[in-house]
Amino acid sequence: MKKLIAISVMLALVAGAAFAQTTVSGVLELQWGGIIRSMGADQSDVGMGGISIGDSNIQLSSSNDDGTFSALLRYRGANFPGPVSGNSVPADGWNELHNRAFIIWRPIDQLELFFGKDGDGKFNTAGLSRWGHHRGTRGVGVENWDAQNYLLGNWDAWGFAASIKPVDMFALHVALDLPGAELFEDRFDRIQVQAALNLDFGKIDITYQGEKMGDRIGLTFSSGTLVEGLQFEVGGNYGLTSEVIRFGLGVHYNGGDWGVRARVFGGDFDNLLIKADIMPFYAFDFGTAFLNIRIVSRDGADLGWHVNPYLVLNAGPAQLRVGALIQHGDGDGGASSATKTSWSIPIGMVYSF
Question: Which CATH number describes the domain made up of 2-352?
Answer without folding.
Answer: 2.40.170
